Amino acid sequence: MRARQSIRDIEAGGDVASVFLIGAASLQQSRNGPYWRLELRDATGRVEAKIWSPLSTAFSDLEPGRMAEVEGRAALYRDQIQVTINALRLLEPDEQNVLPLADFLPASPRPPADMLAELEALCQRVLTHEPWQRFALAALRDEALRAALLKAPAAKSIHHAYVGGLLEHTLSVAGLCLRFADHYPQLDRQTLFAAAIFHDIGKLEEMSGGLANDYTDAGRLLGHIVQGLLRLEPFLAASGLEPELALHFRHLIASHHGELEYGAARLPATPEAFALHYADNVDAKIAQCQSLFPARDETAATPGMEWSPWQNLLERHLCRAPRTPEPAWPEPPLAEPPSPEPALAEPSRTEPELPKPSFLPDVAPEPAVSEPAVSEPAHDAPPWEEPVVPESSLPEPASPEPPQAEPSRTEPSLTESPSPEPALPEPVWQETPAPDEPEPKLRTPARAAAREDDQCSLL
Known about the structure:
This protein is of the alpha+beta class. It contains 14 helices and seven strands. The protein is 33% helix and 13% strand. The strands form two sheets. Strands 1-2-3-5-4 form a five-stranded mixed β-barrel. The longest helix is centred in the middle third of the chain and has 22 residues, at 271-292. The model is unreliable at 412-417 and 440-459 (pLDDT under 50).
């Protein structure tokens, strides 16, 4: 037996010689006679192959799930690689049993057991309503369901068609639905999440899994939506869930394909139903795009536009555009322990004296503001220090009297003769004089009265 050649290594114009898994086989008719149309698979991908007449008449039956030693040549047909088989030998069961299945069955990069444990942890964290949590954990911990879930693919060929694919798809859809619920708080988060983790549970019975991974009879007659509802009904009945919540859950499962022509039993009728449909659709389309192109080497030069072969279901070619280049930023300074900066971390309490702004004049610092003691100015004080009372307003001089009869300061003639206090000139507020000139002080009424007595004593 020849050394294995993977499907990923097949190139147009090259020879093919290796052992492959027959994923699908159908006998068809052409102008030159009957021919076999095969799909060859291994863990790296799948490729279409043809056995033309007269070699095709040598095989009365080619059953999917069998392994075969193939020789042929690859060529391009409608932008896709196709193998023309020149020789084919089916392996005997004992030869097939010694081959490692991992070489022929693609698998999720994540261990299925880890994904199932993550799903259970999410149920315990998100489903705070006890009937919801009781329902979900009871279904996931059912032995028959759990064993099938650990190895089930999510589809026959379109998306997540590998071991553990259903768990990978389920976790992705559940994560998208939780993000929808975060963005739209009006959504019923727990009902949406419960429907997300069980929306494709019917595929455990719709698909056979294993090497053939074909549709079962029940899958062809009922489909995974009906099969999923039937499989979950006993767990719903035992959970004690409110009838309205259970009815809404069933609607989400029945409508998650979005359109009747795409297999939905009912059109989405609630916001949660729309959210589940689009989360399921987006994840399937992104996974389909990823499966059509090899993993991109981030260190290599970014290629131009890459196009896929024609996709019959989508009725278009798919394109992988070049990515926007990311700048090669240096290592962030936080990656290393930063050096201590005491001046920045703990500023000093004593701030340094700031420089004087250039727009201020050079003036001497003013003394501390304090109320000066009340004292009368000298009689020879400059006229600008005190307002001068006009002579016409002064009282008439009194006739001389004996010294012993000096008029008292509280005589009525002295208090009544001066002009009343409002007659004094109204003080005018002036701008602050220059520092070298004494600032005139406004006097309180008590000091003004004392000054009038002083003037009388001078007469």
